[in-house]
Amino acid sequence: MNKKVIDALHSQIEKERDAAITYEALAIWCSANEYPGFAAFFKKQVAEEREHTEKLIQHLLDLGEMPVLGATKAPHSNYKDLLEVAKAALAHEKSNTAGVLATYEVALAEKDYASKIMLEWFITEQVEEEVWANKMVTLVSRASSSNALYNLDRNIINDLAD
Ligand SMILES: [Fe+2]
Ligand SMILES: [Fe+2]
User: Residue 152's domain spans which residues?
Assistant: First the structure.
């Protein structure tokens, strides 16, 4: 396999692992602040991000390469309120989309068509990810009372179901 593609795939693996640990931190913040619905939603995202990581690792293995994991940095864990949490999730998804596209561009430039096809799944997935993250920011922004936030928390899993 082409070295540039291997490096790009490794940096995307780190982005997916970083997304998983960030969502784990967001789930903990939500649990600590009595938003069990949001906590459950973010825990589901942790599982999804781990699947994404696994998919990239398997791709390297399938092509005979040895995936190597790096150190994960501590996630940000101090948030002012639920809106800041939702905005952090959206920012993270946008950055993950940028990572996927950058990896895709390397695969294209190096004519690694197997990686290109594999990464197309991630491009489609990132559209979905940004849909829920944008929707979450909108719904939290609109909930202007603690009562509204309470109700939003109870329904968020269904509201953002794909
Ligand atoms: Fe992901
Ligand atoms: Fe994601």
Answer: 3-159
Whether this prediction's pTM lies above 0.90 is answered by: yes
Count: domains in the chain: 1
The pLDDT tens digits for 110-158 are: 999 999 999 999 999 999 999 999 999 999 999 989 999 999 999 999 9
Beta strands in 79-150 (DSSP E): none
| Residue 118: half-sphere exposure toward Cβ, Cα within 13 Å | 20
Cα of 45 vs centre of ligand 2, distance in Å, is: 7
Distance 16 CA to ligand 2 centre (A): 7
Between CA 153 and CA 140 the distance in angstroms is: 9
Q: How far is the CA of 107 from the centre of ligand 2 (A)?
A: 21
CA-based nearest residue to 56, from 120, 7, 9: 9
Ligand approaching nearest to the C-alpha of 121: 1
